[in-house]
Amino acid sequence: MRPTLIGIFLFSSLVFLSGCTHNAPVFSQQSEQTTQTDGVEEKPVEFVKLATGVWLHTGYKVVPPWGNIRTNGLIIERNDYSVLIDTAWNDAQTAEIVSWAKDTLKKPVRASIHTHAHSDKMGGMDALHAQGVETYASALTNRLAIERGLLPAKNVLELADIGSQVEWEGLTVLYPGGGHSEDNIVVNEGENNILFGGCMIRPGMTTSLGNTGDANLGYWSRAVENATNAFPDSQIVIPSHGKPAGREILKNTAYIARPKVD
User: Is 60 exceeded by the pLDDT of residue 181?
Assistant: First the structure.
């Protein structure tokens, strides 16, 4: 099925994919809650409709001296509930996302998946567990979460080997191998051909790999290629720290990671 793009904003240097359509208006909502850190106002949580039944949630954290740093996740509607891909930075933002799904979509979050053990993906686990959300992550992610002072997910996805996949809530979850982190996984929403690459995929045409503190620099490029090959039909790619784009950011990430390998 060809994707329907609603509310996707691309960097000015990127070109829209020829197969995408734009026959509906942007549907974006922002919360009204803000906080202040070192004189910089933290941006509110944002919600953007990507396609029918698929929403991007974006939380922000003020990190001096760079200012607001975004982190993306997804809300995916099902019949009478929704599933969440990743928390925001903290419990307050994540609770707001859960409330928005319940009050605006009328589809409470029932389950969630977490793409690796960093605070921008698992910083709001308490908020999910307080609402009875069934949380899922790989065994490696759960182990690393505990080591890093984060709450692990309640349930385990069987993704031990590179290239292993599981079908979860109508989504395909792949462990492509270590990249940004040893445990990073990607999630493909096949109905609208949307690939959530998380922190393994770098935004835009950047030349920076960003935070490499827990990275597998020897395999990152190969991991991106594994994800690229696994989902050849996915035309909308979501990085954690930038705007949705096309498959060009897969190619770019593999390219900028490759010098670290060679």
Answer: yes
In a domain, 95, yes or no: yes
The backbone torsions φ and ψ at residue 8, rounded to the nearest 5 degrees and listed phi first, read -100, 125
Give the closest residue to 252 by CA, choosing from 215, 209, 218, 205.
205
Domain around 134: 28-261
Is the pTM here over 0.70, yes or no? yes
* pLDDT over 90 at 10, yes or no: no
- 162: domain CATH number? 3.60.15.10
How crowded is the C-beta side of 71, counted as CA atoms within 13 Å?
27
Number of domains in the chain: 1
Among residues 176, 177, 183, the alpha carbon closest in space to that of 145 is found at 183
- Does 251 map to a domain? yes
Can you tell me the distance from the alpha carbon of 180 to that of 85, in angstroms, rounded to the nearest whole number?
Answer: 17
Is 138 in contact with 184 (CB distance < 8 Å)? no
Q: What is the mean pLDDT of residues 118-142?
A: 98
The pLDDT value recorded for residue 4 is: 38
Burial of 174 (0-12, 13-18, 19+ CB in 10 A): buried
Q: What pLDDT, in 10s, does the model give residues 66-123?
A: 899 999 999 999 999 999 999 999 999 999 999 999 999 999 999 999 999 999 999 9
Reduced DSSP (H G I as helix, E B as strand, rest coil) percent helix, strand, coil of the chain, to 5: 20, 30, 50
Q: Does residue 99 lie within any of the structural domains?
A: yes
Packing angle between helix 248-261 and helix 220-230, nearest 10 degrees?
A: 150
